[in-house]
Amino acid sequence: NSILLIHFVELLSCAVRNTNCQLCLLTVNMREGFISKIKLVTIVFSIGFISCREMVTDEFPVYDAVPVVNCILVQASFLSVNLSFFGGIDSLPLPFVDNAKIMLYYNGEQREQLKYEGEGNYSSTSIVEPGSVYLCKVIIPGYDTIVCSQTLPEATQVIGVEPMGLAGYDEEGFGYHGIKFSFPNSVLEAKYYEVSIKSLSFSEEGIMFHINQMATCDDPVILNEGVSIPLFSNEIITDSVYTMTLYYYPQSTTEWIEGDPQTTFLPVVVELRSVTHDYYSYQKQYCLYNNGLASDGLWGKGISIPLFSNIENGYGIFAGYSVAFSDTIIPK
After folding, report:
1. 243 contacts: CB under 8 Å, gap ≥ 6
2. How close are the terminal C-alpha atoms of the chain, in Å?
3. Are 109 and 134 in contact (CB under 8 A)?
4. What is this structure's pTM?
5. Packing angle, helices 32-50 and 2-17, rounded to 10
6. What pLDDT band is residue 138 in, cutting at 50, 70 and 90?
7. Banded pLDDT at 90 (limits 50, 70, 90)
């Protein structure tokens, strides 16, 4: 064993001093299998010692300033647009556009010019309605006119909801609840959806909605999408009514009664969003984009995913959704 250790140290020293040297053979009177293992370890250690290293640059190329339009239209809400300029990785925060003229067209007719509110935000007095065509023309001095348009689908109603109570525990021991809900489906029309389970709390200011974090998922329709968010299409739904099961982490309040803690789960509602195809495409790409950023390169593959854009003569997203809520239920 002492002879083996001496030869091993000599071999490593040789590799560090001269990367072109040949690996010397270990002539130790041992079984062939054991010698093979020693050679493998030697090669691994040698590669570690002689591997090349290069300083990562902190100088990035200069990008042209390209306008970015961001607008999510929501049923029964005022339309608003945010304008900024595209930049490089070292250009945060992005510069806002404060000298634009945004004209809003409703079903082909000019309706109003949006008002600048500061920090790149432009607001309108128009409330978004499903089935209507909304088109914006953005005029920024020195740039081509930006055009974007969208039509929201009608909301799909939630026709049944059932709380399942405690459904399981995750790897860290936290319990999660389940909920079932149903909605009608048209097999003749492509539709796109997003689901959010929200808890309700009450205060002097009114009703507050709190988004619940999603837990594990085993619904085949969502699994078919290949993303980790409750975003899906009706591509593989063949029935006129579909029942979906989702799992979420409930929110609760705790109060002490006669020295004992009493936990009460907050009531919840299911928010079913009927989203546009552009919204569906953007959210799906955005999820994959974030997954690529979160990868450490060891346990997951770092992949560069471009973000979806539907803006003519610029970047960004102009999309939206209509909303339907279920009845309020009390978790078991």
Report:
1. 160, 180, 181, 182
2. 66
3. no
4. 0.78
5. 30
6. very high
7. low
Length of the chain: 332
Q: Decide if 112 contacts 104 (C-beta within 8 A).
A: yes
Q: Coil, helix or strand for 290?
A: helix
At a CB cut-off of 8 Å and minimum separation 6, what does 110 contact?
Answer: 103, 104
Mean of pLDDT over the chain: 84
Identify the CA nearest to 322 among candidates 136, 77, 90, 139: 77
One DSSP character per residue, 294-326 reads H--SSSS-----PPP---BTSEEEEEEEEEEE-
Distance of CA 134 to the CA centre of its chain: 26
Would you state the pLDDT for residue 100?
A: 97
* Burial (CB count within 10 angstroms: exposed 0-12, middle 13-18, buried 19+), residue 272: buried
Nearest residue to 292 (alpha-carbon basis) of 228, 225, 230? 228
Quote the CA–CA distance of 93 and 219 in Å, as a whole number: 39
For residue 150, which amino acid is it?
Answer: Q
| Two tokens, residue 27 | 């002539």
286: left (phi over 0), alpha (psi -120 to 50) or beta: alpha
Closest among 146, 143, 140 to 100, alpha carbons compared:
140
